Amino acid sequence: xxxxxxxxxxxxxxxxxxxxxxxxxxxxxxxxxxxxxxxxxxxxxxxxxxxxxxxxxxxxxxxxxxxxxxxxxxxxxxxxxxxxxxxxxxxxxxxxxxxxxxxxxxxxxxxxxxxxxxxxxxxxxxxxxxxxxxxxxxxxxxxxxxxxxxxxxxxxxxxxxxxxxxxxxxxxxxxxxxxxxxxxxxxxxxxxxxxxxxxxxxxxxxxxxxxxxxxxxxxxxxxxxxxxxxxxxxxxxxxxxxxxxxxx
Length: 248
Known about the structure:
The protein is α/β, with parallel strands linked by helices. The protein contains 10 helices and 7 strands. Helix 1 packs parallel to helix 7 (150-165), helix 5 crosses helix 7 and helix 8 (183-199) packs parallel to helix 10 (227-247).
C-alpha cells in the first residue's frame, strides 16, 4: 500500500527502457515518494529489468498505475508540472526544482493533487504533453550538455520535495562517544602545558612570556575540543616529558 502522507504523483510519459523506470522508482523511494504512474512504456509492462534495477523499491512498480496517454495519467490532477530542458515557445511559468516543489507543497497542503511529468529518454516530453501542464520545471544545467537521465531528473525533483516537507539538518557533529570539553578541562590543559613549557624554557624572552601564554590560552579556548581530545593532548605532553627525561 502507498504511504499515507500527501505527495505529488511522479508520471513517466512513454519511458523507453525498463532499467530507467526501475532507477526512477528507486530515486523516488529514496525521498519517500511512492506514487508512480506510467504511460505506454515502450518495452511493455510489467518489466523484469525495471524490477531488477529498482533494488528494494519494487513495491512502487507493483503499485504503479498504467495509462495509455498523458491526458489519462493527469485526469485527476489539479496542477501539473512538466520537466524539460528546452525552450518550448509556450507561455507558462518556469520553475526551478526547488521553486516547483515549494509550490507543490503549498498546493498539496491546500488539498490539491499535483503531478509531475517526465519525458522519454530519447527526446523528452513532446509539446503536446507540455501543453497540458500548468507550469514547467527546468534544471539549471550546463547549457552545452542539458540532457538529464530520467532517473536523475526524478531524483532532483524528489530531493527538492523532501527539502520542502522535512526539516533538513545541514550540519551535525558526531562526538564518537565523547563530550565537549568544558572551560575547566581547557584551563587544566593550559596549566599543564604552561608548566611544562616553562620548565623547557619555551616562554622566552621574558618580556614576551605573558603574551605568549595568553595566545596559547586563546588557542585552547577557540579550538572545538572534546574531552577525548584534551586527554590525548595531556598524554602527548606527558610522553614528551618522559622521553626527554629518559634521554637525560
